[in-house]
């Protein structure tokens, strides 16, 4: 039985970096190339950030990963993502999220 785990782009980069490029198929190479270009953190920092966002800010794992992949820098950028989630997030929680993302 297969299980499903949500991972950030940084974690994808770490997972694929363990495979020799010579043994990757075309999709794995494209994915690794993309992850290398767009990962904004190292894998361990992304994991720690994900657990803080889920634990301290009551975000779902999916929401936390979306923010980690994008890394909004301002409150207005952050609001543009959270608006699409169709749930009310208090201003103080948004500020806490931004503080975690900017660490």
Structure description:
The protein has 103 residues and is mainly α. It has six helices and no strands. The protein has helices at residues 9-17, 26-38, 43-57, 61-70, 75-82, 91-101.
Keywords, please?
6 helices; 103 residues; 64% helix; elongated; mainly alpha
Structural class: mainly alpha
How many helices? The count is: 6
The percentage of residues in β strands lies in under 5%
- Model regions low in confidence, pLDDT < 50 over at least 5 residues: none
The biggest beta sheet reads:
none
* Radius of gyration, taken over Cα atoms and rounded to an integer in Å: 15 Å
First CA to last CA: what distance? 38 Å
What is the helix fraction of residues, given as a range?
55-70%
Record field, number of beta strands: 0
* SSE pattern: HHHHHH
Specify the overall morphology. Answer: elongated
Whole-number mean pLDDT: 94
Quick overview:
This protein is an all-alpha fold and 103 residues long. 64% of the residues lie in helices and 0% in strands.
What does the secondary structure layout of this molecule look like, with pairings?
Elements: H1 9-17, H2 26-38, H3 43-57, H4 61-70, H5 75-82, H6 91-101
Helix pairs in contact: 1-2, 1-3, 3-4, 3-6
């Amino acid at each position: 039985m297969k299980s499903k785990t949500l991972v950030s782009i940084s974690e994808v980069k770490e997972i694929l970096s363990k495979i020799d490029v010579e043994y990757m198929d075309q999709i794995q190479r494209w994915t690794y190339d993309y992850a290398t270009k767009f990962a904004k953190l190292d894998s361990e920092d992304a994991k720690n950030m994900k657990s803080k966002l889920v634990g301290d800010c009551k975000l779902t794992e999916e929401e936390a990963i979306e923010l980690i992949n994008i890394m909004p820098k301002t409150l207005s950028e952050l609001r543009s993502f959270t608006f699409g989630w169709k749930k009310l997030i208090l201003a103080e929680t948004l500020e806490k999220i931004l503080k975690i993302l900017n660490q």
